[in-house]
Amino acid sequence: MYKFHISPFFPEKFFLLYITHRFFIQQVLEKMAIFALFGGHGKVSLLFTKIASEAGHVVYNVVRDYVQNEDIEKVNGRTKVCSLEKASPLQIAELLKEIMPDIIVFAAGSGGKGGVERTKAVDYEGSVKVFDAMRIARIRRLIMVSAIDNRDMNQPPPPHYKEADVELSLKIHKAIGTYYHYKYIADQELVRRSTDIDWTIVRPSGLTDENSNGKIAIGKISINSMISRETVARAILLFAMDPQSKHLIADITDGDIPIHKAISGFIIKGESSYTYSV
């Protein structure tokens, strides 16, 4: 055991205060995280940035155009410009080395704009570039923001789906099948990289702009439901800050259980909402 020499010029009470202060600062720093948020100008992303920054975290919002900076600054984010369509994995890795994030959140998406090619370039190829860049930059932790009912339509629906869920699923995939296709193969590729990436896939149901009621349903749930974007943002942060959530896939929607309690119980149970075949 180390013995500390207390100098007469450094009285014991001040030494104890110094040690206590150092311990407090260390605890604060350990709880603070730096995030790189791809798709940093989306509605969920801006809400996440506000919530995370208010909790003492640092968020770098990665966007394709600096014109989005004003909205990002309003929620205390820090803008970084990088087009997932144009950048190479090496260029993205250089950005990550500059930011040095603890956690990456991938919330980028084409939003259905630009047709099939742009959806493929952003939702699938963009995510794979980030996966490659993480390996180059030696970053492991990733939260993937996906979507509920993101599944292989050539397989039977999940056993917990009721008739109304199956009918809605068919309608959704008929309407935005291209989006779901590229999100599915992106998630599938992420799962393949489980030895390199400590991922968590968060799959919210339909989104609303209502204020969060602070409660969710999580797990094997009905897809015929909605969730507040603010609730999604809060859930992303809770998952991100719990390393025990790695390699879990979580379907979430508005519900009756407080967010923190629901997510903690889900993580302890350790049973994903869906399993991607790889």
Low-confidence stretches: 1-6, 18-29
CATH fold-level label: Rossmann fold
Question: Distance between the terminal alpha carbons, to the nearest Å?
Answer: 51 Å
Shape call? globular
Report the CATH C-level class: Alpha Beta
Whole-number total of structural domains: 1
Strand order of the largest sheet: 3-2-1-4-5-6-10-8-11
- By DSSP, the count of extended strands is 11
Q: Rg to the nearest angstrom?
A: 21 Å
Portion in strands: 15-25%
Q: Helical element count?
A: 9
Structural class, please? alpha/beta
- State the helicity in percent bands: 40-55%
CATH superfamily: NAD(P)-binding Rossmann-like Domain
Please tell me about this protein's structure.
With 278 residues, the protein is α/β, with parallel strands linked by helices. The protein has one domain (12-269): NAD(P)-binding Rossmann-like Domain (Rossmann fold, 3-Layer(aba) Sandwich), CATH 3.40.50.720. 45% of the residues lie in helices and 18% in strands. It is built from nine helices and eleven strands. It has helices spanning 12-31, 43-54, 69-74, 89-99, 115-137, 163-175, 177-192, 229-240, 259-269; strands at 34-38, 58-63, 78-81, 103-106, 141-145, 198-204, 206-208, 215-218, 226-228, 248-254, 257-258. Strands 3-2-1-4-5-6-10-8-11 form a nine-stranded mixed β-sheet, with helices on both faces. The chain has a two-stranded parallel ribbon with strand order 7-9. β2 (58-63), α3 and β3 (78-81) form a beta-alpha-beta unit. α2 crosses α8, α4 (89-99) packs across α5 (115-137) and α5 (115-137) runs parallel beside α7. The longest helix has 23 residues, at 115-137. It is globular and about 50 Å long. The N and C termini lie far apart (51 Å). It comes from Schizosaccharomyces osmophilus. This is NADP binding superfamily, implicated in heme catabolism. Residues 39-239 form the NAD(P)-binding domain.
